[in-house]
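user: can you give me the structure for this one chain? tokens are fine.
assistant: on it. calling the predictor now.
[tool input]
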Amino acid sequence: MTTRVLVPLGVRHHGPGSARAVRAALEELRPDLVVVEGCPELDPLVAHVADPGLVPPVAGLVYAADDPRRASFYPFAAFSPEWVALRWAVARDVAVRFADLPAVHQLAPDAPEDARPATYPDVIGTLARTAGYDDPERWWEDAVELPDTTGSVLDRFALLREAVTEVRDAHRAEHPAEDLENARREAAMRRVVRAAFKEGHARVAFVCGAFHAPALHLPDFPAAAHDNRLLARLPRTKVAVTWVPWTHGRLQHASGYGAGVGSPGWYDHLFTWADRDRDGVVPAWMVAVARALRTAQVDAPPASLVEATRLADELARMRGRPSAGLAELQDAVLTVLCEGSRVPLQLVEEQVVVGQRLGEVPEHVPMAPVAADLVRQQRAVRLKPSASLTETVLDLRTPNGRARSALLHRLRLLGIPWGTPIDAGRSTGTFKEGWRLQWDPGFAVALVDAGLRGTTVADAAARTVAEDAAVADLPALSDLVEACLLADLPAGLTAVVDALAERTTHQHDALALAASVGPLARTRRYGDVRGADTTRVADLLGTVVVRASVGLRAACASLDDDAAARARHAIETCDEGVTLLDDDGLRRPWQEALVALAADEAVHGSVGGRANRLLLDAGVVLPSTAAERMARRLSPAAPAPAAAAWLDGFLAGDAAVLLHDDDLLRILDDWMAGTADAVFDDLLPLLRRTFARFSSAERRAVARGWATGPRVPAHAPSLSTSRALARCWPGWRGCSGVLSRERARCPGPVAAGARRAGRRGAGERRRRGGAVGRRREAGRGAGGAVRRAPRLPRRGPRGFVPAGRPLVGRHPHLLPQLRGAGAPGRRHGAPGPA
């Protein structure tokens, strides 16, 4: 009778030391069957393991045929023991099987409650603590990954199995309840082994996680009836399998992968170089680190690499480790190459320790129809997926640029954000698109799920848009119209426009109609760039704008702050769309509605102020009318919060209205000067947010205009206004010297404000007196005389010198400098103030 031999090779998933040990054990055992932990449905994928086009990291994807979102991944890296066992068996024509609880039971929708994943004992952590280690990762590296011991590898696996048996027995004593989920998995593994023995296999090697090794010790096998009872009457479902690319980043613990490792890039390097030259592991690692740092424009000279290598070796000797591990290498890199900074070290961890490698799957491997179509389109537009983060700018004037853009937009509609839109750079045209690209292996599930709605990316995206349009509200439908234009989906655009026309007929919310104008206008305006027919969109726009204009005033009545913010956003979106198209048929009813809204003082201040500003910018409202309304809304009789809200709406956008209209500047100055201190403190956050929207150049220009006063020299800004500006943005303080001189020249209407600001500043000056005195003492020379620096003009933000007449009168030699630092928009060297 032939002796049956079953050798469980308990490993740590994705451990390079375990992978080398498995390879040595297979060479020593020479089995006639290799069993690998994994669901049996993966057996058809073994035929592709020897294909040179299948480059790890890859994963076996198993998904339910009726609902691809119920799926499981089985990742393999080049340093995974399971992958090494598969490659060894295929290269020697040895039979290979997978053994675990079948996926037809795991992915069944009505799986029993007791089949939920259980909490396993921390085997590696327990063994590490027993050996005196506080870090399980370091113990595993020292005990398994790094040593190059001699002797029988099978004996080492037997010792590890015995140690795990003790840990499991101790855990079972503390938790006597049976773990049904784990018991079923191990019963399924034993059933595969029994079937292999019945088929005539005599020497079987079983590569599994170290936790399962005790359950696969042949003398301890329970009766077959026991395992059959555990596996009886389990729910089933139909499943499908395929290979998909994987990344090192998805092998991490941080990605949510339960069997992940902390440093896939380091393990891949350790596995690769241990076979080539074990003494070259540390120098080669330093070279990889230097390459990553130099790519990021960080200095990494050869002398520093030599010093870092020596430091890593010395740290290993000091810590009593067999050789330098990742901890020693990271400490050496941080000390020598990063000079103690963790910012470049974080780059090393992302690029080298974890790694950005993306696996490859050959085209002839069976895959979902949508995934196959995506591969063809990627090749056609020359857009290769990558796990690293890259940025690209597409030129929509070229056929390839439009094809790339359409592909990326279609994938976003399918819930596959391979690309994220970004700013295209310094370009005011619409023919450029910026994208940030990064491929995630998890997109494979979304591609399989998209196959339920079509066989190509375009068909699946169009069907998805049609399904979303059936349940979307009006603003969402407007966004879908624009998305169909960007994705070049004529069929989807037709379905969305039909739904939008129907929804518009029954929509009575004027603000919702107004919010939908912006996307529709962009679709109409830029449709010719992509060759789309937007005639129906134009017809629909006329109806939407007219209905939004008719109901706008009534929709803006009795609004609280939150509702006013939403109404303001809808008004801005609609006005942007109407302005973009420049169509009299759309502009006339919309501006008539804004005129009625701007004249109504009963509406919320934020909405009324924004309506007046939009009409002022369009030339419909005269500056004198806007100044009159601003004076009325900012009068002392008006509540301060309502006035601040009106001001926030009016000043939103840019500061041009303050730079070119002295009346508005004076009204705002008087309002700030007359606001009580307690009320002003409450209004300060809103005022700061209002002025923070301006650019730095606009803030400097406003500050200079306030400091030098308006062109009518009968008024100068008050100290209360100076205090407000200084608290709204720090750049105002640079103009305080000019303001003091202007205030001395223009007394009268700001006397009260000056006295109030003086009282509030007296305490601060007393508090700062001690420091001032110490600075004066430090400035005295040997004879007690004070060393005085030459009087120079005070500089404001970014070196700006306020260009006021008093300053130039006392320092005429600074006139060329003032001309060079003139008002924003003036070219360098252009004539400055007289």
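assistant: here you go. The chain has a mean pLDDT of 79. The CA atoms of residues 763 and 769 lie 10 Å apart.
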